[in-house]
Structure formats: C-alpha cells, structure tokens
C-alpha cells in the first residue's frame, strides 16, 4: 500500500525526522489560507501516487499571492498521468545547497533489506542506479539485528556525504530503518534530503510504501488505505478484498489464482485485445464472490466484454457453475457479454450446468479468450 | 523415482485443527499421503481423523518420526510456525500460508542459511509425486505419474499446464509449487538441480512470472548445468510496472526489472523454448519426449 507524501511526512515528523512546515489543502481557498500561515516561497505539491510529479507540472513554487493562486488553480483538479489531483500539500520552500538521497528497500535476491545513500538526490534515483551505479552506496542489513549505528555511518561516509552533515544524515537513516521495521514498510525513502544554507538537513519529500500483508498488525496504517486509494474501483476492490489492478483496455477479466489470471491477461493481448483489469477471486467461487467480481468489472465503464476463467482444483467445477448461475441471475440484465470457461475437477458437469441464456461457454482457455476479444471488438464498434 | 517426497515421507501438519488444515489433511490422507501427526499449541492429546495432535512440532517429530511438515497456520503466526519447524530435525517444511509479512520472511530466510532443513514456499500449493504423496493443496486427481518434472510459482497456472500435458498423455515425476512471494525458501535453481539429478525425469516444465530475478538465474543454471530439456512459460507480459499482480512477488519494479521480456529472453538464450500459451508449452514437452 502506497502512502501519500503528506501521510508519510506526518509519520516521519513524529519519529523526529526534520520536515518543512506544511498544510494539506483540497481547494484554492485552503491553499491561500495555508500560504498565508507558511509564508513565501511555498511549494504546492500534488498528492498523487505518480513518480516525476515535478516534471509533469504537479509541483510549483510560489513567491507571491498571485503565483500561489495560479499554482493552486493549475494543480487542483489537473490530470497527472491518469490521476486527478484532489489534494495538494502546501509546504514552506527550503533554501538548499545540496540534495541527497536516502532510502531502504527489500533486496529480493538477497532476501534482506538494503540501505542506500547518494549525493545525487533530487533526481530519479532509478536512473542514477542505471547510469552511475557507483554513485549510490549500499549496505545490506541483517533483519535479525537491524541496522547497526556503525552501518549507518559507514554507508553515509561511503556515499561521500559532506562531513559536517554526515552525522545528521546517518541519524535520519537510522530513524528510517526503525520506521521501516516498526511499520512493516516495503520501501521507505527521502528524495531529496536537502542541505540548507544553514547546513541543516530537511526531508523535502517522503515515500513510504507499506507491506499490504502486514496491515493486520498496523490498524492505524490500514485506516489510511482508503484515503490512499486513487480510484473508485480500487476502493471497491479494497472493500471486497479482491486482488485487483485496473488497466486501460476493454476486456474485463475474472479468474482464480494470480498466475492464471496474469496468463489470461497475456492471452487477451496475444489475440489482439486489450485487458481492462486483473481480478483474482481466489479459491472457490461462491455466488457472493462471483457477484462481487462481476459488479467490479461491470462498473468499469471501459469494459466492453468479460472473460471468466476458472480452473477448479479442490473446488469442483459444478459448484463453481452453480455460483456463476446464481450470481448472474441476481443481475436484472447482463450489461456486457460474459464468456465462461471452466476447467479441472468436474469441469464437464459444470459446463453443462451453466445457464447459456446468460453466458457464452467455451471449452479451452484459448477459445474463451478469443471469443471475449471478438465480443469486445463488436461491442466497441 | 521422484524428488523430495514419496510413499515413505512421514508428514506432520502444523495447524491441523484449523479449517484449511483439517480439510486438506483429509485430502492428503485420501490421496495416500502418510500423515502421521498434527501440531497445534494447546491441542496436544487431541486427534483429528485418528491422527494424533501434539503441542509442539518437536514432540510430533520425535514421537512419530516425521520428516516433513506442511504449514497451514494463519499469516500472523506463520513466520513463527516456520521457525518452530526449522528448529527440529525435519528434512522439508512446506509453507502453504499466503500473506506472511515480507519482513517476517526475511528473518526466516536468514535462519534458513543456518540449518539443513529445506523450506518450500510460502504462498505455494505444495508439491505432489503422483500416485505416491502430496503435501499441500494441489488437486490430486488432475496429476498422473510420468516422466516430466514441473516447477512453478503459481498454483492454478500449474494445474492449467498439467491438464494440457495430461491431454497429451504426459505424466509427471513430481510437481512443485515454489510460491508467489518475494522471499521464498526453494528457488527455481534448487528445484531444477533436483530434477536434473533425478533419473526418471526426462523433461522439465518451468512456469515463471514477473518480479525478481529467479527466472534469469534459472536460465543461467540451465545453460551451464542441465542436460534434461526444459520448456518454459512466463506469466505477466502485460503487467504494468509498479503494480502487484495478485502474488506479493509478482511486480515489475518502477525501474523496469523483473519484466516478462527479460525472463523470456534469458530463457531463450539458454536454449529454453517459452510458450505463448500454456498449450504451446505442452507441445514443446511432447517434442522433447
């Protein structure tokens, strides 16, 4: 789960990491009130989960009331790489001399966290990692011990952080690891850490993604999930407890098991269609779950046709078919054509039970996907 | 022959009194798996379908001479349950549980380096040697004994490929689900190494997916160490970067590592044909045999 900058900054500030003074605003009037308190220069920053907000016009610096108003009007409501900006963070502008990078993430290959520090902050760190990997100092962390203070110092010195602020940066890194561990973060980073003209260090940005699987032990963070969701359908998926990813195509996809659903998406693409979503309904296929899944894809206005692909393992195909029938009968009308393919245990019995007044039935995965792609093409003409 | 499990494997089920544990224990026993004990704290002395339950895994292992465990413990307690299993003389621990926090698994992973026990999973369907034993939740009825080894990060995708193989009359030596989490015990390379050493495995199917670099490492291993032919499949060609596609580990990073393209070309470079559809994978295997 991704937190917004303002949510992460609240957590950072509480842990003692210096952040600029800021206010969250959702309207031009609120922005104007905030800048009046904070003063100029002020940064007005879109709160959406999009990388490279600055380049895309989602961050502006205002040095006067007119500029602040203009920035607020421009950014609030703007479309930033497909996301509508509903909130901005109004923040005191920092007069800085250098920009650094500090972050911690899980190194999958090693199976342990790694701390990263660089003097090349304020730019896309992934580009730095690719072009000049030596510009980033790395230190792996034994999860049983945590980040030893000496490791924090070591990686900071190796990165070539100016000596007069090295202690402060190492201290920020140690606090970041404490947060990474105590909040079950997947990634945590500050890019940039700014060194001010007074040689203070300030977290000018904040990225914090939480391991969704650990939210059960962080009710406070779980509460932020809806607030952090970007999209009505993603919010709905959270409520239903589905693994759901919205995409840009018009073929709605429902299936069971992550690998098989991904494969169904890939086949839609392979046969010339465009997947509208990833939706895994998980084990079994009780009528209620099927109804919820159909509600998800039907309420996506981009969807023109649906493919429903279930491989019954322990769950028997005839039970799945009953669930699908029951679910479809609960809709007054089926708004989009649905192709169903059942495989695995008792698949034949299941296919015979399916109500063909409501759905089209195909025997193989390939045929089902091709038919759904054709249905989508016809419906969109 | 087979790898990791067979007729003789003596199994303890951790979490045998829970809904999932109880149901799948029945399924495993029905399939012929030798389930000798359950382990659930506070339930020692009880029986589930005649199977004795112990308070600790260690008691179960010592009393019943078990050599493998299957973990059906809820995510909040599963990390601890795996640690408990690793603190015994078990040869194999199979963690079915989905949703164990990644940082818990990082600690488990550290421990794995210090013990001889092998971990399979977590977030996996388990493994099956058709006609002999299954440890986990795989539907036994779709598998048939044969000469093809199968290793996969995903459950239902494995079933799909198996059914494509079965349609062609091709059976399996052992099928292993290694799990969809970012940090797992047994990797593709580990499984491939076992299949390469197994005399009865004449071909291997490897089903990977986006995220991480396990498939790239497997490609390198195949090129350098394997004579047994391997056919591959990679799920997630259409996945956008930065989105978790169901499995916690199925994510293309923002910087573009872990893509399907990278895995497919690594496998192709290692001489491994990669199917565009699961059915194509079965065709490649048929050609091998």
TrEMBL record, chain A:
InterPro entries per UniProt: ATP-grasp, ATP-grasp_succ-CoA_synth-type, ATP_grasp_subdomain_1, Succ-CoA_synthase_bsu_CS, SUCC_ACL_C, Succ_CoA_ligase-like_bsu, Succinyl-CoA_synth-like
Residues annotated as domain ATP-grasp: 9-221
UniProt GO MF annotations: ATP binding; magnesium ion binding; succinate-CoA ligase (ADP-forming) activity; succinate-CoA ligase (GDP-forming) activity
Record field: catalytic activity: GTP + succinate + CoA = succinyl-CoA + GDP + phosphate; succinate + ATP + CoA = succinyl-CoA + ADP + phosphate
Cofactor descriptive note: Binds 1 Mg(2+) ion per subunit.
Keyword Metal-binding listed: yes
Positions contributing to Mg(2+) binding: 191, 205
GO biological process entries: succinyl-CoA metabolic process; tricarboxylic acid cycle
Binding annotation for ATP: 45, 52-54, 91, 94, 99
Entry function: Succinyl-CoA synthetase functions in the citric acid cycle (TCA), coupling the hydrolysis of succinyl-CoA to the synthesis of either ATP or GTP and thus represents the only step of substrate-level phosphorylation in the TCA. The beta subunit provides nucleotide specificity of the enzyme and binds the substrate succinate, while the binding sites for coenzyme A and phosphate are found in the alpha subunit.
HAMAP family (UniProt xref): Succ_CoA_beta (MF_00558)
Record-stated family: Belongs to the succinate/malate CoA ligase beta subunit family.
Protein name: Succinate--CoA ligase [ADP-forming] subunit beta
Primary gene name: sucC
UniProtKB/TrEMBL annotation, chain B:
Biological processes annotated in GO: tricarboxylic acid cycle
EC number: 6.2.1.5
Magnesium recorded as keyword: no
Domain CoA-binding: 4-100
UniProt binding sites for substrate: 159
Domain of life: Archaea
Active site positions, chain numbering: 247
Binding-site list for CoA: 17-20, 43, 96-98
Pfam family, one: Ligase_CoA
Gene3D superfamilies: NAD(P)-binding Rossmann-like Domain, Succinyl-CoA synthetase domains
Reaction equations catalysed: acetate + ATP + CoA = acetyl-CoA + ADP + phosphate; GTP + succinate + CoA = succinyl-CoA + GDP + phosphate; succinate + ATP + CoA = succinyl-CoA + ADP + phosphate
Molecular function GO terms recorded: acetate-CoA ligase (ADP-forming) activity; nucleotide binding; succinate-CoA ligase (ADP-forming) activity; succinate-CoA ligase (GDP-forming) activity
Gene Ontology CC terms, in alphabetical order: succinate-CoA ligase complex (ADP-forming)
Alphabetic keyword roster: Ligase, Nucleotide-binding, Tricarboxylic acid cycle
Keyword Transferase on entry: no
Enzyme superclass (EC): ligase
Pathway: Carbohydrate metabolism; tricarboxylic acid cycle; succinate from succinyl-CoA (ligase route): step 1/1
Assembly description: Heterotetramer of two alpha and two beta subunits.
Family membership: Belongs to the succinate/malate CoA ligase alpha subunit family.
Function: Succinyl-CoA synthetase functions in the citric acid cycle (TCA), coupling the hydrolysis of succinyl-CoA to the synthesis of either ATP or GTP and thus represents the only step of substrate-level phosphorylation in the TCA. The alpha subunit of the enzyme binds the substrates coenzyme A and phosphate, while succinate binding and nucleotide specificity is provided by the beta subunit.
HAMAP family tied to this protein: Succ_CoA_alpha
NCBIfam families in the cross-refs: PRK05678.1, sucCoAalpha
The protein's name in its UniProt record: Succinate--CoA ligase [ADP-forming] subunit alpha
Organism: Halogeometricum limi
């Amino acid at each position: 789960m991704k937190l917004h900058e303002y949510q992460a900054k609240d957590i950072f500030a509480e842990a003692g990491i210096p952040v600029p003074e800021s206010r969250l605003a959702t309207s031009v009037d609120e922005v104007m009130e905030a800048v009046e308190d904070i003063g100029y220069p002020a940064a007005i920053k879109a709160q959406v989960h999009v990388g490279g907000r600055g380049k895309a016009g989602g961050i502006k610096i205002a040095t006067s009331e007119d500029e602040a108003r203009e920035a607020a009007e421009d950014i609030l409501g703007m479309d930033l790489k497909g996301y509508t900006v509903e909130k901005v963070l109004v923040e005191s502008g920092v007069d800085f001399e250098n920009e650094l990078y500090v972050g911690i993430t899980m190194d999958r290959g090693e199976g342990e966290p790694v701390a990263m520090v660089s003097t090349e902050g304020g730019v896309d760190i992934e580009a730095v990692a690719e072009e000049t990997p030596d510009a980033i100092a790395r230190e792996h962390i034994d999860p049983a011990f945590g980040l030893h203070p000496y490791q924090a110092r070591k990686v900071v010195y190796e990165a070539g952080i100016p000596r007069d602020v090295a202690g402060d940066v190492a201290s920020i890194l140690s606090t970041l690891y404490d947060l990474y561990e105590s909040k079950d973060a997947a990634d945590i980073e500050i890019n940039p850490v700014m060194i001010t003209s007074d040689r203070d260090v300030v977290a000018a940005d904040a990225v914090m993604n939480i391991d969704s699987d650990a939210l059960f032990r962080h009710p406070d963070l779980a509460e932020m999930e809806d607030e952090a969701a970007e999209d009505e359908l993603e919010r709905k998926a959270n409520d239903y407890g589905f693994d759901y990813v919205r995409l840009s195509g018009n073929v709605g996809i429902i299936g069971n098991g992550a690998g098989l659903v991904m494969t169904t998406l890939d086949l839609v693409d392979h046969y010339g269609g465009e997947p509208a979503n990833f939706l895994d309904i998980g084990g079994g296929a009780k009528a209620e779950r099927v109804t919820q899944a159909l509600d998800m894809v039907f309420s996506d206005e981009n969807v023109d046709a649906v493919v429903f692909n279930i491989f019954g393992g322990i769950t028997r195909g005839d039970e799945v078919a009953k669930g699908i029938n029951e679910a479809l009968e609960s809709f007054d009308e089926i708004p989009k054509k649905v192709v169903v393919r059942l495989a695995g245990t008792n698949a034949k019995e299941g296919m015979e039970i399916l109500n063909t007044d409501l759905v089209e039935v195909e025997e193989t995965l390939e045929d089902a996907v091709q038919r759904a792609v054709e249905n989508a093409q016809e419906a969109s003409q | 022959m087979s790898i990791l499990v067979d007729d003789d494997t003596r199994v303890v089920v951790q979490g045998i009194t829970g809904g999932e544990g109880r149901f799948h224990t029945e399924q495993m026993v029905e399939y012929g798996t030798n389930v000798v004990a359950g382990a659930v704290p506070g339930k020692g002395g009880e029986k589930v379908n005649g199977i004795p339950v112990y308070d600790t895994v260690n008691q179960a292992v010592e009393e019943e001479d078990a050599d493998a465990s299957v973990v059906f413990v809820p995510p909040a307690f599963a990390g601890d349950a795996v640690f408990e299993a690793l603190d015994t003389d078990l040869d194999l621990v199979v963690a079915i549980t989905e949703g164990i926090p990644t940082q818990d698994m990082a600690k488990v992973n550290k421990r794995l380096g210090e013990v001889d026990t092998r971990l399979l999973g977590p977030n996996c369907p388990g493994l099956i040697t058709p006609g002999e034993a299954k440890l986990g939740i795989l539907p036994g009825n779709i598998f048939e004994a044969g000469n093809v080894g199968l290793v996969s990060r995903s459950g239902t995708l494995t079933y799909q490929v198996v059914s494509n193989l079965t349609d062609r009359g091709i059976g399996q030596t052992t099928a292993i689900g290694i799990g969809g989490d970012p940090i797992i015990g047994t990797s593709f390379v580990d499984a491939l190494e076992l299949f390469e050493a197994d005399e009865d495995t004449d071909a291997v199917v490897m089903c990977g997916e986006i995220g991480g670099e396990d498939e790239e490492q497997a490609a390198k291993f195949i090129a350098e160490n394997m004579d047994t032919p391997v056919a591959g499949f990679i799920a997630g060609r259409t996945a956008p970067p930065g989105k978790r596609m169901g499995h916690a580990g199925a994510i293309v990073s923002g910087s573009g590592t872990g893509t399907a393209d990278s895995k497919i070309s690594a496998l192709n470079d290692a001489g491994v044909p990669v199917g565009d559809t699961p059915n194509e994978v079965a065709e490649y295997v048929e050609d091998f045999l």
